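Sorry to interrupt, but I need a hand with the structure work. Please put the record directly below this note.
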Amino acid sequence: MRLRITTIGSLAAFVSLCAGGVTPSPVYAQALTSIPEIQVQSNVAVPMRDGVHLAADIYLPNQPGPFPVLLTRTPYNKNRGAREARLYAEQGYAVVVMDSRGIYGSEGEWSPYVDEALDGYDTQQWIGAQDWCDGNIGMYGTSYPGFTQLLPAPYRSPYVKALVPVASQSDNYGSIWSTNGLYHLALGLSWGARQEAIATGNSIPDLNWMEVVTQLPLESALAKVGVYSEFVSNTIRHDAYDDFWKQMSIRDQYGEMDVPAFHVTGWYDDLISETVLNFTRMRELSRSSESRRWQKLLIGPWGHGVRPNRFYGDMDFGGGVDIDFSALEIEWFDYHLKGARNGLHEQAPIRIFVMGDNVWRDEYEWPLSRAIPTTLFFHSNGFANTRFGDGKLSEVLPADEPSDQYSYDPKSPVPTYGGHGCCGAGLTPDGPLDQRSTQQRQDVLVYTSDPLVEDTEVTGAPRVQLFFSTDVTDTDFFVTLSDVYPDGRSILITEGAVRTRFRDSVEKPTLLTPGKIYEVEIPMWETSNVFKDGHRIRLHITSSNFPRFNRNLNSGRSMAEETKADIRVATQTVYHDRTHSSAITLPVIR
């Protein structure tokens, strides 16, 4: 049944939803002042190829069609997308908001991610055949609804002309569920169990989530929650990159894609590296030159999703951080779906927020070819533990220096505090937080440069070359880059991690030989920060970041099987001498 709904609103109401309350660009201001009535069709049953019907709400402008269509597919309840859908419909778009298979109004069995590719394609083909569709479809959405845009892209529906995937992954093993074998514990248990409870009509009682994430073996944590998810159980059992993970990946499918995409992320988004990978690979490998040309990237100083607030974590990024992202989306869709000549073709393909200077800047390539790899080597007299130790960073090669040591006890892990985050049940505070409390633990090695004599911009992906040994067969290393202010604040800029069994291959793990010296490269997430004159550059190293990531119990056994009896205390040794020159390499813009 078609129900007519009159939307009450104004330009001011629309602007209040936009990031920072910034007025839309003049190109769109006149159109946004007209608020027509919207026709809504609720719970339309859309057929999939296997006979399952997925529920969609359809919003149509109250004017003659057909229309270009904006589609979003979500596991978070299509009803929650009503306000955004009406705003798009007011701009002359038909809008389709659909529940994912097996959850909320849709039929079928809820199995996260694995059905989204074919279901997405079937939905696109169904929309293209409707009389209210003019043959042009765009997709939008953040996080999971960002991934539901990319998963069907290799099937190349002829109707899909543009995407806006915000905070989206290439697969679930490179981030969000796992970071190359380091399991995202708080997210997996909380998000996975809650979604399963919704799909099965159950409820999750109020829980002490810290008790949940400390359960061993890990699979028993689901019993503590009271809701069993086969998908979550599989993410725990499959700790290597295997067919389970590959079935929900697009990493090998970029060459099959042929669609313009506006990729959006934040410097502290758990999915920044994945979003950047999507942008660079689609820009390189998409089938047509037109699609390769129309890959666009926006990175702001926020975490998961578009959150352009001047205050984030322990930082004030200034009023210049504000952007009107809704207007940017409409501008993108108007160009690609309506053929509007709105100046989009004259814009740079990349726009980044440079922290420290706190300004937006246009770029035309990624990574930046003008970035100069600058190596800072570790130094100490063997006492780099804590920020009060003697650990130093400098461009001088190390001589014959003693190594540094610390003990990593899984029973007393370093707590998550700041960094790249998403969806951790309130247990994993993210963003640019002051690291001084972490850096005064004995199980944290800290290396700090002298005060800088000039502003130093780091834009790109730093990497750490680490020489280490340990007395266990498997362990973790976490590295964190921070900007040390003259008043002592140590603000987290970016980070990286490695589970040593996956140091050579995420598909074929190999354990360590206790006492042997290894060299491992630890890639860090992308960033852009100006370390100001008088500031210092600091790197700290430890072996846990809990409960964002599961604790490595140092036993060498599969994480799904480890029990309290498997806990081993690891003695970690970090080398920095003539033949083992541990260092961080920064992409410096001179």
In short: The chain has a mean pLDDT of 93. The longest strand covers residues 38-47. The domain at 372-589 is CATH 2.60.120.260 (Jelly Rolls).
